[in-house]
Prior knowledge:
The structure is a homodimer of 238-residue chains.
Chain A: H1 2-32, H2 39-46, H3 60-85, H4 91-108, H5 110-117, H6 131-154, H7 170-179, H8 185-206, H9 217-231
Chain A binds a DNA duplex (30 and 30 nucleotides) through helix 1 and helix 2.
Amino acid sequence: xxxxxxxxxxxxxxxxxxxxxxxxxxxxxxxxxxxxxxxxxxxxxxxxxxxxxxxxxxxxxxxxxxxxxxxxxxxxxxxxxxxxxxxxxxxxxxxxxxxxxxxxxxxxxxxxxxxxxxxxxxxxxxxxxxxxxxxxxxxxxxxxxxxxxxxxxxxxxxxxxxxxxxxxxxxxxxxxxxxxxxxxxxxxxxxxxxxxxxxxxxxxxxxxxxxxxxxxxxxxxxxxxxxxxxxxxxxxxx
Amino acid sequence: xxxxxxxxxxxxxxxxxxxxxxxxxxxxxxxxxxxxxxxxxxxxxxxxxxxxxxxxxxxxxxxxxxxxxxxxxxxxxxxxxxxxxxxxxxxxxxxxxxxxxxxxxxxxxxxxxxxxxxxxxxxxxxxxxxxxxxxxxxxxxxxxxxxxxxxxxxxxxxxxxxxxxxxxxxxxxxxxxxxxxxxxxxxxxxxxxxxxxxxxxxxxxxxxxxxxxxxxxxxxxxxxxxxxxxxxxxxxxx
DNA sequence: TGCGAAAACTATACGGCGTGAAGTTTCTGC
DNA sequence: GCAGAAACTTCACGCCGTATAGTTTTCGCA
Lengths: 238, 238
């Protein structure tokens, strides 16, 4: 009995230290950008030696990967929650809610956005599996739900496109097709296009390229959503 | 006479060395990403000491700034050339040419794209003036020309939007308004939106986020252009 | 033509980085 | 109580940017 208790204690301490490392790393990223994530800085902040961290993460890239996983999951949670919270009966509102959640999360976590979608740290190479790709697929699945909501209105726009299922990643389709059995491949293309549109505007804004051209990125994004909803054939809300 | 000749010689040598530094830096960037741009690596490649480079660039950030200026100018030249080469009488073709030039340049110079639109090197802070912002405005001006070409067809979509001139950067307007005197503020918003759309798709592709979802980014981008031209009210080419 | 100055470059050094190897302390389970 | 594992430190290496001081090459002018 005491044995399992003490083993639990050690594991708990380990988990706490791991959490603290990640938390400190996120703080450093928030204050100094992804480039500020250094093992030595983290260790300094925690009163340890840099090498002590190697007991928790095999390499700095491993730590970054874990952070990306956490951050991407947080983004996926945010947009999923917004989608679920919006009334299902109004596709336009749901789309707007999703998009605003996406941009809102990015503006609230600009360094996280950079970590996910930009160059995180020089030389870092993202692994092909793990929580981050899963979260990316959750985001894409959410986008497809968005496209599915609009598809009855937008279908005619894709009458002469020729997308095949083989144009898309099997992993993504494995989640999407069971959820939306009636959706054609072109609807996935629409989802990716919408992703591109939103990502582009938010990305330009986060990286400061939009701020040098317009004073009202808010208004521009709002206009984007208005036009998006309209182009999907859903009547805009009054 | 000999004096001016020899002075010219020294200046020429200096210019050649400067050019070689930039060229080597671009090679390093192409092979190892923006993070591979290190003074020591450049010097090693050139058979010099790292400190010798300080005679040409005050700091590494200065070198990076110069590279960004060059690269951004090259992008602006590419899209401008494509625009000028396309027949003026067909707005749809011109828009497609511009967009394909944009994506083509990005795919041909992915590291350059990252250098311009991503985090170049950790801790680097871009200056507010110089050739790069100028090139950015050239790109935006080109985009506005694109929006202007489509405006007669697209105007009705913006009937109930409320953009003001004060929503946009004075520097940009200084170039845009004289060139297109009849264009309303909403057309600039349209230009920025188009920029966002194209940038988003290309950015996702360059950073590898699109490749994990679709096997045919080409097809997706082509579809984007088809829908873009259609949404602008220009009849798509058969 | 020769000399003082300026420009180009090297040598050395400092602190920060990721990381590997080896040693030390602390805790755990039998 | 003690073997062993886990946590952590110390030391080391090579990389980076960059500041300072010293050296060599080149130039302009008398």
